[in-house]
Amino acid sequence: MDDSEIEFDQRGLVPCVVQDWLTGEVLMHAYMNAESLRLTRETGEAHFFSRSRQELWHKGETSGNTLAVKAIRYDCDGDALLVLVEPAGPACHTGERSCFHRGELDPAAPYEALPTLERTISSRATQRPEGSYTAKLLEDRGLNGDKVAEEAEEVARAARDESDERLAEEAADVIYHLAVLLRGRGLGLADAERVLDGRRQR
């Protein structure tokens, strides 16, 4: 990336949209100047420039909720950055995962379903609430594997003989059980996505 192509404004700033590397969720909006961009590259963690305090800002320096930077991209005009990160905790100072937690939240955007599902599964894995079906599957990998196979058969049957609505419902069941199975092995849907991406590049 050639930083000479970045169009800083008259204040020496460029707006940054921060996006979760794994889920694609937009986490926050901030500004960088040339120095914070340099520090971000050198440290691998997001640094910004605070317009209100007029100083550099290492995200998470106090809270521990740092942002490990995976990639920095810029738009067609070079006057905005997209910073792809792996967050160590909530991105918002309120404790919310994303700063964009207000406004029109219902219905949720389709892309939000899988990240939300995986966070719910992770919560069940940690808390193991009594009576939880997800917790039961996490404790019995054999049962979980059998359920994936069973649901896959139901998808195939729905594709042959049933409505589009039923096919979508059965596909959702497969995805859920597969996500639980992956979590039980310490993996996530992103691990499968990386395999798909590698195949695409061959």
Descriptive report:
The chain has 202 residues and is of the alpha+beta class. The protein has two domains: 3-87, Ubiquitin-like (UB roll); 110-201, Helix Hairpins, CATH 1.10.287. 43% of the residues lie in helices and 18% in strands. It is built from six helices and six strands; from the N terminus they run ββαββββααααα. It has helices spanning 34-43, 113-127, 133-139, 141-161, 164-184, 189-201, and strands at residues 14-20, 26-32, 47-50, 55-58, 67-74, 81-87. The strands form two sheets. A four-stranded mixed β-sheet has the order 2-1-6-5, with helices on one face. A two-stranded antiparallel sheet has the order 3-4. A hairpin with a 5-residue loop joins strand 1 and strand 2. Helix 2 packs across helix 5 (164-184) and helix 4 (141-161) packs antiparallel against helix 5. The chain starts with 13 loop residues before the first strand and ends with a helix.
Identify the notable features of this structure and list them briefly.
single chain; 202 residues; alpha+beta; Ubiquitin-like (UB roll); Helix Hairpins; 2 domains; 4-stranded mixed sheet; two-stranded antiparallel sheet; 6 strands; 18% strand; elongated
Percent range of helical residues: 40-55%
Which fold does the CATH topology of the largest domain refer to? Helix Hairpins
How do the SSEs run, as a string of H and E?
EEHEEEEHHHHH
Low-pLDDT ranges: none
Strands of the biggest beta sheet: in what spatial order?
Answer: 2-1-6-5
The CATH class of the largest domain is: Mainly Alpha
